[in-house]
What does this fold into?
Amino acid sequence: MPLSVDLSSIKAMSVPERILVVEEIWDSIAAEQDSIPLTVAQRDELDRRLDAFDVSPDEGYSWQEVNQHIVRDLRPGASSHE
It folds into this structure.
């Protein structure tokens, strides 16, 4: 499928402008996510993870804990796995 987008005009954009273009493209893909089929391996992995969650719902980390670890690790001078 040929692209109807002039890539040279995109390359001429500033980085923040290109990021906005990528965000728009990503949002349009996310809006149509039902049209993107999962592979058998992906479906099996999701089923495995859901089964593991059903057995031990308290195992693992909450999103809040994960986010705190990421923010902490991104601080200048932070060492990973503190």
